[in-house]
């Protein structure tokens, strides 16, 4: 499997729970490297733009309200099969359905406050990484 990148966000609930380091540790133990990172408090416009694909969904307003409710940590992860590997580490969207040992099973409290975001495809990853990072803010591992 080829080396690729994915975009990850530690959402406001997980930042508030003080588990940034525990989540980073899971990425690194799974062979993913953090090649870009920043902490930020998303504006309404940033959150709406990021989740634009969900604009017509009934949960869109709640999603934007939640994502702007506190600081997040945004990172690009690099490694073999990074997109799928990160989705496996995250677990199902609804923590009640997430497999034991996944980030959402361990740290998420609800389908809204579900601890992490991860790109769902290579194409999404490319768009989402460019949404948050300039090329000179990404530090590939050689
Ligand atoms: P994410 O984009 O945040 O990584 O989550 P995901 O791919 O697992 O789920 P997605 O379908 O992309 O939905 C984005 C976020 O919207 C909220 N959601 N609520 N009430 C609902 O039925 C519902 N469905 C989705 C979740 O917080 C989800 O993470
Ligand atoms: Mg998604």
Automatic annotation (TrEMBL):
Q: What is this protein called?
A: Nucleoside diphosphate kinase
Matching entries from NCBIfam families are given as: PRK00668.1
Q: Which InterPro entries match?
A: NDK-like_dom, NDK-like_dom_sf, Nucleoside_diP_kinase
The domain of life for this entry's organism is: Bacteria
Listed EC numbers: 2.7.4.6
Its encoding gene is what? ndk
Q: Does the keyword Protease apply?
A: no
Q: Summarize the protein's role.
A: Major role in the synthesis of nucleoside triphosphates other than ATP. The ATP gamma phosphate is transferred to the NDP beta phosphate via a ping-pong mechanism, using a phosphorylated active-site intermediate.
Which segments does the entry list as coiled coil?
A: none
Binding site residues for ATP? 11, 59, 87, 93, 104, 114
Q: What is known about its subunit structure?
A: Homotetramer.
Family membership: Belongs to the NDK family.
